[in-house]
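Thread: quick sanity check before group meeting

JM: Hey all, I'm pulling together slides for Thursday and realized we never actually wrote out the predicted structure for the chain we discussed last week. Dropping the sequence here so it's in one place. If anyone has concerns about the input, flag it before I start.
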Amino acid sequence: MLVVRVLGPIEVELDGCVVDLGGPAPRRFLSALSMAVGAPVSDAVLSEWVWGADQPRHAVGTLRVMASRLRSALGAREYLQRGNSGYLLAVPPEWVDHHRFAELITDGVRLLASGDAERAARLLAQALGLWRGEPWPELDQAPASAAERIRLVELREIAIEELQAARLACGDTATAVADLSEAVTAAPFRERRWELLALGLYRSGRQAHALAELRRVRELLIEELGVEPGPALRGVEQRMLDHDPDLLLMESPRPQPVSQSAMMRPVGRPLSAFIGRRRELGLLAELLADRRMVSLVGPGGVGKTRLAVEYCAAEANTTDRWLVRLGDVHDGDAVVTAIASALGLIHLTGDPLTLVRRALTMQPGLLVLDNCEHLIEPIAELAVTLLAGCPELRILATSRQPLGIDGEHVLTIEPLRTVDSDGADGAAVDLLIDRVRAARPGWQPTGDDLGAAREICVTVDGLPLAIELAAARERAFGLAGVAAHIRDRLDVLGPTPRGSLSRHASLQAAIGWSIDHLGAADRAMLLRLWPFEGGFGWEAAESVQSGATDASVLATLASLLDRSVITTDRTASGVLRYRLLETIRRYCRDIDPDPQATRAAHAEWVRAFAGEQAALLTGHRAGAAYRALAVELPNIRAGITYDLACHPVHALRTTASLQFAWGTLGVLVDGRNLIRTALDLATDATPAERAHGLLALSIVSFHAGDPGAALARAESAMGLLDSAVERELWLHALMYRALAITALGDPIPTRAAVDDVIAEVERGPAPDWIRGCTQFGQGLALLLEGQPAQAISWLRAARELSADCGHLWCEGMADVVLALSILSDPDDIAGADEALAAIDRALTVFAQQSNTSDALGAAYAAAYALMVRGLPEQAIALRAAAVHHSERVGADPRRYAQFAHPAVIERMDRLLSAAPAAAEPELSWTAMVGLIADAAGR
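JM (edit): ok, ran it. Output follows.
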């Protein structure tokens, strides 16, 4: 028989004789195998344990030689085997002393708990007799062995204590007191030992000595650790002072294993249906199969507790699990007491932490710590202690921020989707409908009900708690009424129903719980962020940060994100943006002590941002500037709206500076309305500022297909300008007037207007983008005059110059008009191919600047090229889609179609008149671009 001892320096006996294992390396080799007895250990792990960082060049071969020598020393090959996964020590677990040690202690503690103190004392003494020193000293402090070593050391400490408890129960008080006097010296902070010692002294008739020992441990704990003794020690002391006669009769404190009732107590499921979290439930199960510390993190009301409860209650989950509700625990010292209660230890005596650690060491399982966000530090410290001392324990935490401990895996829980990826109603709508039906059996939503349900879900950010509270008000207001009220006030939501897992009485209380626990700097920053709509970048947050704090904006945002008060999104280009949930935005607005100053700071940032980006729209950085403006459109609208009410001149300046963006980004209607309102309200603006606004209105009117209004606005602006003083604005006015006249289709006034622009450009210095636009205008005039060959030359020149200087709009539009001018023959297939290539280039350029309205104009032109190519069905579908999408953004896709040859236009008209009504839905933008790219051969 082979006996392996690792509780101290490794020893191996074979049939009663000690085996010579050789030097340090083979001893470490066998120590590593003994830790995983019966299971293979890979070559890589063995090499790490045997040599650490100083591995030999041929480690695998060296291991093979070492294994061969050990087999010879052990006298039998079957004890040390080699498999596909590595080496293994193939002996029964009871032949290795650390397995026998743990088994004896487990049995001894169980016997003591059942009242058989005599047998318990024998087993515990036998277990302690196996201990010769720290386990596996050959492996030093290798991380891989640390957890098992800690577990065995803790088991020894438990055995020492419970042996004395068994002796006290057997009446061997003198031996117990003598050993406990040594034990408290060896481990003075283990309160269980002091409790047993005091009890032994008291029962020996040494009451004064017992009280003196309790005072001594109290002074020790306060002086060394700054803490008071636990409830068990305090309780024993008070009973001694009260001369409680039962104290002499009571049995010695027994060990506190997890009771069977606590181990098997099921986690109760709520009665309502669980909707929309199947993916997260599966992911959580996968994580807990491999990870020991998992945290469910998300904002208040998102359903973290419900997900944890559903996981625990699942029939397939056979692991012992204990749910600890910490929402009403406000003292860090009370956390361990709450855990003890969940384990069924609340009526037992002793230090709660010792009891909990002992219980979870004896009976591993899953510990669920619910609502940790207000006690992060003490819970994190306790989790580290329990995970280190209980190697088989797993912990699942729910919190609005991670615990921040090593090895923690964070699963972020997002709000439910209102719309799924396939366009169908998402889980948020399903949840709302289900909860309404629960109160109104047989209810079927109408189309209006579904529309209101979607609006409610969007307004409350898809938060399950808010959705359930909204459903509770359906009987009082109907879904349409709830949707109408909830836009402006959250108090329309009902109270939390009885039996709900939520600990908060209302949604406002849940949000307030998050915000009330923020630090001063975090709270100050949060209250400056609510005016942002559609999210914000860190630079924007820094610009509105209160001057009362010098905290780093990046650190503050990270802190708010950790606490699930803000969330993050990424733009299509991968840029990280922050966002407040709509419910949190409203709450912050309502509690902001100075909302006017907060909105003013936001509007000031909008002015600066819009001005910076507008200055880039005609150069090489235009693409990035247009994309930045597109992302911030909701914020730009909000800032301009504030300025219209408080500073209309600022609003006029901002709307005018974005003259190119309104059409390019497909918000012509918004832009036109905002510019008109600013012109009406900014009565004290300077003539130049009003002229700038009129010019912005002119170019927006042109893109909207109203050249008459565009011409009138441009000429009105010219009447306010001094061409010598405001030369750049004067050039804009001349260009916009010429563009509007060109759209009216009369070649004579077009020529005069274009010549005016050329003359002004030649009169003095002008930027290249204006020169490119002038060449573009010359090409348009020549087309109207019936000189397509010369026009094409000017259009190509305009495209090249605009590409060189970075003016994306003119580069793309030159290609669109070039394509139309090439279509001079309705049967010229080669010309159609060239036109499609030009339009494909234009679409690539427009994509860089997020130019929706002109891209639709290019698609409209492509329909003519497809018709010439002999693809009438595709041509009709593309033209119909271009018209449909243009109506949505307020643009006119036909504003350049006049430059196609009349015969081509006539053929398209005939084709349309003969085509049947479209039965298929309109093409999406992606389908339109793909159709053009395929036709162009890209």
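AS: nice. Residues 250-265 have pLDDT under 50 and may be disordered. The two ends are 78 Å apart (CA to CA).
JM: adding both to the slides.
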